[in-house]
Specification:
By secondary structure, the protein is α/β, with parallel strands linked by helices. It contains six helices and nine strands, in the order ααββαβαβαββαβββ. The chain has a domain of 139 residues: Rossmann fold, CATH 3.40.50. Helices cover 24% and strands 25% of the residues.
């Protein structure tokens, strides 16, 4: 009898077929999950399963595919990056998703974080301020079969009012303070996870909406590219 995969717990029914995952990278992805995620204390079985399911090498430039599963962020163009796997998994775990949620992601970038979220939530709206990156992410997600993700172009600091409210919001760029529109677009009991601080260093926060008020929890230090927009950094900063 074959050994049971420790990451077998069910993830969203929208998960693409395993045939989309190039066999060349299967072992490297599994090793990434073991050494970079489990070994550092991440325990949510659904998050680990999603991280092992999404082919990270499909979300980086061709010249960097050999480094796709390394323990580091990688450039994706437009002075943006795909986050370190540990950071992607940690932020995702902090959202405490059960599979029934409507999720908003700010900073779609390559689409990798959107793909991970798509396996853990009912639907995902992702906002990207750079039209070229949004177009690439949209095409990539469609090609790989992540059907429950919608990628929009816009100012992420404004959220996405057309689909609000959201059960959870994830921001993958650093804000000088919590953008007010994002808190306003959370449902009662909703969670917002984002890095807040200076342009050089931030703290990852988890914010919960309870009784119409926002309660903030500090998670750990981090460093992200700036969140540009009306409630973020100006393009010149």
């Amino acid at each position: 009898m074959p050994m049971k995969d420790p990451y077998e717990p069910a993830i969203a029914a929208s998960a693409p077929s395993a045939s989309t995952f190039d066999p060349e990278y299967v072992d490297r992805c599994r090793q990434m999950v073991e050494t970079q995620l489990r070994a550092r204390g991440l325990r949510d079985a659904r998050v680990l399963a999603a991280m092992q399911t999404v082919p990270r090498h499909e979300f980086v430039p061709d010249a960097l595919r050999a480094n796709a599963y390394d323990d580091q962020p990688l450039p994706i163009g437009e002075e943006q990056t795909i986050s370190q796997p540990f950071m992607v998994a940690s932020m995702t775990e902090a959202l405490e998703l059960s599979g029934r949620e409507s999720v908003l992601e700010i900073g779609a970038g390559s689409g990798y974080q959107s793909a991970v979220l798509s396996l853990l939530a009912r639907e995902v709206d992702a906002v990207e301020s750079r039209a070229s990156l949004a177009a690439l992410a949209r095409a990539r997600l469609a090609r790989l079969g992540y059907a429950n993700v919608r990628v929009h172009v816009g100012d992420g600091t404004l959220g996405w009012p057309a689909a609000a409210p959201f059960d959870a919001i994830l921001v993958t760029a650093a804000a000088p303070e919590i953008p007010a529109p994002l808190g306003a677009q959370l449902v009662e009991g909703g969670r917002l996870v984002l890095p807040v601080g200076s342009a050089e260093m931030q703290t990852l926060l988890r914010v919960r909406r309870r009784g119409g008020q926002m309660f903030t929890e500090r998670l750990f230090p981090c460093r992200f590219v700036p969140l540009v927009g009306r409630y973020g950094w100006s393009p010149e900063e």
